[in-house]
Design goal:
Strand order of the largest sheet: 17-16-18-19-26-25-24-21-22
Helix content: 10-25%
CATH topology of the largest domain: Rossmann fold
Distance between the termini: 74 Å
Structural class: alpha/beta
Radius of gyration: 42 Å
Strand content: 25-35%
Number of domains: 4
Number of strands: 36
Shape: elongated
Length: about 700
């Protein structure tokens, strides 16, 4: 037998009190004179002998009762054969406070029961033990060793957290904190609902000085519905255009849902509503159509109603609507009338022609498209600026010159796109167009009609393509490309096999050739990501077209006022913002530069918490037994967590038996004093003569 609090055994000195009282408890007797004392002497001897035995019995009961009571406070237990906690423990508790812990339980919510369970575990250990508390927040307090009072104070302040870390990240953070303790015996408790999409028992590692206990919290199953994601059918946003938005709604429950209302708000105005049917355990893609009515950054959100899990009932997203696109044309002459007619006469575009010997680099950074029209050579400075422009999301459209030097070919090769080869002087007709390309999609009403195709008298060979993905938009009769698009990092490089002049044929006068060129300008507006996922997306690039980019950008939530300064780097005509988990709530965040709003981006919570399917006790027990690790599962309810914690770690507790024995001793003492030696009442009969 061992004791959890052996220092209290000094209380056994209290048994001296009844012994001293017994030794000094002398009675004074009154003398009574009788004429015949023979019978009285016999009675006196018999009473004194009984009284001595009675006092010894009372003394023994008092000593045993006090000793049992002291031993009970010292918390005796029968230790396990492999127990190593005699010199103190490091007790590490992981308490899951993610959004899934908002689910209902028999006593309220899972988080309420988890906090109660953690307090019971802490109270099962002594004040000489060290404690570590880990939650989904990974706060500074959680990275330190705590005493018993400190961890109980932290447990009183735990709330649901928007963060959700992987099981590997949780174990790594906990391991780093535990390394700061000098205790040799480490005990881990993991209190969670153990969602199947996150928990992985194979990642847990224990040794001879480590014990791990899983504390699953059973939930009253909740039929959760969440908005998973959304996307647009077309990336082009212009005032007056009709756009189609798709939203994926996921039903994680076991019941089919019918006519669930889904609403779309744009700039706090309701734009569309849909009633959707979702089978049990499946998802559906809902289609919503509406018109764009204003320019600028559009702040939109999808909303549905579902309880008790509500964090996934809204999805925030933003997109940009522009009034025109800036297109710069770098030419070898004063200008090209065909380019001017295509882009300069259209109010959708702002056309900026400039000679290649006098390029305004500052204007290039504000453009969506740069056209290289028959440039015989490219300087190193221009090549560097164009490379930054393309890789940061711009579109480069190239029309070849009749004679070019190697600088043009080397520049295109450095981007990883195709490059120009020989000039082939033969008449060819355009044989096919890629109607599935974004640059043609929706432009042809009837694809079955025989189309009048443009003709080339000569064209440049386009060869290679490096590591970039390529898309042939138009092809000639011999299979060679007439117009080809290459993806270069975030941008596009589009090569034309012909120049816009009569010597190359009639492509520059043909409407079918100008359709993709016009759409290149329309689709060149760089769209930011619709939204970021908290804890997953750590960077977003934004285009700052306003003058005076010097200064520090900050992000401020529209609701709640949360504000932080992200890490920021200037890359070409973009600024990259790095969040480092600074955003914590789903919301619109305004991008501020010296108090001036430069744009808005959206953040949403990670949807992995939406799936409430969890491992039950039997599944966890089976996994623990097959893991070959020192892992056990506490199956009892939270009210018995303290008892289970000490029994599984230290052994069988005996204090309750000593309490019972002490009470029995005191009751026996009362009974002895009350009934032992009490004279019997004799009934005398009176005989009436």
């Amino acid at each position: 037998m061992a004791f959890a609090n052996p220092a209290l055994l000094f209380g056994l000195a209290a048994i001296l009190v009844p012994i001293i009282i017994h030794l000094f408890n002398f009675r004074r007797y009154k003398t009574v004179y009788f004429s015949n004392v023979k019978m009285l002497e016999d009675i006196k001897k018999k009473t004194k002998r009984e009284q001595t035995i009675q006092q010894l019995v009372v003394l023994a009961l008092r000593v045993l009762g006090i000793a049992a009571l002291v031993l009970a406070f010292a918390q005796p237990f029968i230790p396990n054969s492999n127990s190593k906690s005699r010199n103190g423990n490091l007790v590490s508790i992981f308490l899951d406070n993610s959004y899934s812990m908002e689910a209902n339980s028999k006593d309220g919510t899972l988080l309420y029961e988890a906090v109660d369970a953690a307090k019971n575990i802490v109270n099962a250990f002594g004040f000489n033990d060290d404690f570590v508390l880990t939650t989904q927040d990974f706060t500074g307090e959680e990275s330190h060793i705590l005493n018993k009072d400190q961890i109980l104070e932290l447990l009183d302040n735990i709330k649901v957290s928007p963060k959700s870390h992987t099981w590997k990240e949780i174990l790594t953070f906990e391991e780093n904190t535990c390394s700061n303790s000098q205790k040799g015996n480490i005990v881990h408790y993991y209190i969670s609902d153990f969602q199947k999409n996150n928990f992985n028992i194979a990642l847990m590692r224990t040794d001879s000085s480590t014990s791990s206990f899983l504390v699953p919290l059973p939930t009253q199953y909740s039929n959760n519905v969440g908005i998973d994601s959304c996307w647009f059918l077309s990336p082009v946003f212009k005032v007056g255009n009709q756009v189609t938005l798709f939203a994926r709604i996921h039903n994680y429950g076991e019941e089919e849902l019918n006519k669930l209302p889904l609403k779309l708000y744009v700039n706090d105005k309701q734009k569309a509503v849909a009633a959707i049917d979702i089978p049990a355990g499946a998802y559906t893609d809902c289609r919503m159509v509406y018109n764009i009515e204003e320019v600028g950054t559009q702040c939109a959100r999808l909303v549905l109603e579902d309880a008790p899990i509500t964090f996934d009932d809204q999805l925030f997203f933003t997109y940009e609507v522009t009034d025109n696109t800036r297109i710069a044309a770098i030419t070898d002459r004063d200008g090209n009338r065909f380019l001017s007619a295509l882009f300069g006469k259209d109010s959708v575009f702002t056309y900026l022609p400039m000679p290649y010997t006098q390029v305004n680099y500052s204007q290039l950074k504000q453009c969506g498209v740069v056209v290289l029209n028959e440039i015989p050579k490219i300087s190193s400075g221009l090549a560097d600026e164009l490379s930054k422009f393309v890789k940061s999301g711009g579109t480069l459209l190239v029309f070849p010159a009749t004679e070019t030097d190697n600088s043009v070919r080397q520049f295109l090769s450095s981007l990883g796109s195709g490059t120009y080869g020989s000039l082939l002087k033969k008449e060819l007709k355009c044989s096919s167009i890629n109607t599935e390309s974004l640059y043609f999609k929706g432009a042809l009403e009837n694809r079955n009609d025989r189309l009048d195709m443009p003709t080339t008298l000569q064209h440049h060979e386009i060869k290679g393509g490096g590591t970039s993905g390529s898309e042939v938009i138009m092809s000639l009769e011999d299979g060679s490309p007439l117009l080809t698009a290459y993806t270069v990092d975030k941008g596009k490089v589009i090569l034309s096999a012909v120049a816009l002049q009569d010597a190359y044929g009639n492509c520059h006068r043909h409407a079918l050739f100008f359709v993709p060129l016009h759409n290149i300008g329309i689709m060149s507006v760089m769209q930011n990501k619709l939204y970021n996922i908290i804890g997953v997306d750590q960077m977003q690039s934004i285009a700052l077209r306003a003058p005076g980019r010097d200064g520090t950008l900050s992000l401020k939530a529209r609701k709640g006022g949360e504000e932080f300064i992200p890490e920021q780097r200037s890359i070409g005509n973009e600024t990259a913002l790095y969040f480092h988990n600074q955003a914590t709530t789903s919301n619109f965040y305004d991008i501020l530069l010296d108090g001036t709003k430069m744009g808005t981006i959206a953040f949403n919570q990670n949807r992995k918490e939406s799936d409430l399917s969890c491992y039950d006790e039997d599944e966890l027990t089976k996994a623990a037994k097959s893991s070959d690790q020192n892992i056990d599962v506490i199956k009892t309810g939270t009210k018995n967590i303290a008892q289970s914690a000490t029994e599984k770690l230290n052994g069988k507790p005996l204090w309750i038996y000593f309490i019972i024995f002490s009470l029995l001793c005191f009751l026996a003492e009362i009974a002895v004093l009350r009934f032992w030696g009490k004279p019997k009442v004799r009934e005398e009969k009176t005989i009436n003569n």
